[in-house]
Protein: Adenosine 5'-phosphosulfate reductase
Amino acid sequence: MENQVLKKLTGITMSAARAHSLDTKSSSQMPQPQATNSPPLQLYSLDSGEPRGALAADPPLEPTDAFLAELQRDSDALEKATPQEILKWAVDRFAPHFTMATAFGPEGMTIIHMLAEIAPETPIFNLETGYQFAETLELRETVKKRYGIEVQYKYPKTTVQEYEAANGGPVYKTDPNRCCFDRKLSVLHEAAKGWHAWASAIRRDQSPDRAKAPIVGWDRKFQLVKISPLANWTKKEVWSLITSENIPYNPLHDQGFPSVGCQPCTRAVLAGEDERAGRWSGFQKTECGLHSS
Ligand code: SF4
Structure:
């Protein structure tokens, strides 16, 4: 139904599974980015002093030198392992203190599909900023139906209406770093408390920032173990599995949105653009800060 509505809006019919092999797309029928001024971006950080992530777990897990060395050895040993083997290792090693955050991207859906077979009881959550696309929210329902996995929403302290009223309008228009901090990062810090480890859906070939991601490492920002089972996979491998296993995916990928975030900060990419060029278009911002240290 939604596919039909979106098709009507854009007139685009190519499936994402086919389109993944095309690095560029015609943009003539796609929504164009709004011209924006580029106000200086500020950085925001938590300074509450409270224990974060695994340090707040029961029992707490601390990044001692010995533990970090152990993680390095584990990461090296898993370098040639399949994503499924890495996930199995993560579950065996860290469950029930193992979790996953997802924005329902193609990589996240791939991991959810694998976890459904390996450990469907793994808690998974999504940061519901209040600005996500309807298609993204619908995908949560599809995951529930297909896998019986109920992805938990984690909400900011305020609704969109309250937030915008308190700030004289949408903050994403003037200071997306602050908006991401208030509606994603601070929520994620809270959600990460009490876990020893989480799965990340990043691939090394996605950006220079992600190129050095270990398979297993200590997430210094959130203070817990970060496991990236798809670090060595390519976009093509992800989409091959989605196609062969009929894994559900966000229909927006069929309409020129290779990377989907919040609706106001995501546009379709133009011919020749990087796959994340449609995020925070008009700002010197490429990451919400979740995966940068
Ligand atoms: S992606 Fe945009 S709307 Fe979403 S939290 Fe960040 S700035 Fe706000």
User: Anything to note?
Assistant: The radius of gyration is 19 Å. The longest strand covers residues 98-101. Strands lie at 98-101, 124-127, 152-154, 197-199, 216-219, 224-227.
